[in-house]
Amino acid sequence: MPSFDIVSKIDMQEVNNAVANSMKEIGQRYDFKGSISKLEVKDSVIMLETEDEMKAKQVNELLIGHLVKRKVDPKVIALKSTENASGNTIRQLYELIEGIDQKVSKKVIAEVKASKLKVQVKIQGDELRVSGAKRDDLQKVMELARGLKLDLPLQFLNFRD
C-alpha cells in the first residue's frame, strides 16, 4: 500500500550558515559600523542582541534574506520574546519551529477527510503518515496540503509504493 510522511523539519546546518552569513554582512555594512549587533544560535533558539528596535528590524530582515538564499523557509522562525538587556541594548529570541503540532495535524486531517479521498492519515508524534490504495490519491493529498495556508513549511518524505 503506497504511503508517505508529511513532516516539518529544519536543516540546522543551513540555519547556522545563514546566521554566520548575516553576522559577516553586519560586520561589513556601513550602517552597522560601531554598533553592537550580534546573532547566535543556541539549541532551537536564535538570539539577536542589538541597540534599538530599528537595528533589530534590519538584522531580522538580513537573517530572513539569508535564510531564503539558503533555501530555508522563513516561517521556521517566530519571535518568542523581546526584552531589555544590559548596556541599553535589546534582546530578541526567535524560536525555531520544527515538527507539526496537534492543532495543525488535526486541520490537515480534517481537510483530507473533507476532500473524500480514499486515504488514511495517522498522527505519528510530530509527523503525519498518509497511506492509500492509489498513488494518484496520495499526490492529490500532497497538493491539498501545499494549498493550505499553514504557518509552517511542510515536506513530503518516504514516498513508498
Task: Explain this structure.
By secondary structure, the chain is an alpha+beta fold. It has two domains: 3-8 and 99-160, Alpha-Beta Plaits, CATH 3.30.70; 12-96, YajQ-like, domain 2 (Alpha-Beta Plaits, 2-Layer Sandwich), CATH 3.30.70. 37% of the residues lie in helices and 32% in strands. It has four helices and eight strands. It has a four-stranded antiparallel sheet, covered by helices on one side. Strand 4 (77-85) and strand 5 form a beta hairpin. Helix 1 (12-28) crosses helix 2 (53-69). The longest helix has 17 residues, at 12-28. It is elongated. The mean pLDDT is 90.
Topology:
Layout: E1 3-7, H1 12-28, E2 38-42, E3 45-50, H2 53-69, E4 77-85, E5 89-96, H3 102-114, E6 119-124, E7 127-132, H4 135-147, E8 155-160
Antiparallel strand pairs: 1-7, 1-8, 2-3, 3-5, 4-5, 6-7
Helix pairs in contact: 1-2
* CATH level-4 homologous superfamily of the largest domain: YajQ-like, domain 2
Low-confidence stretches: none
Distance between the termini: 6 Å
H and E string: EHEEHEEHEEHE
CATH topology of the largest domain: Alpha-Beta Plaits
Largest sheet: 4 strands, antiparallel
**Structure classification:** alpha+beta
- CATH architectural type of the largest domain: 2-Layer Sandwich
Q: Walk across the major sheet and give the strand order.
A: 6-7-1-8
* DSSP summary, beta strand count: 8
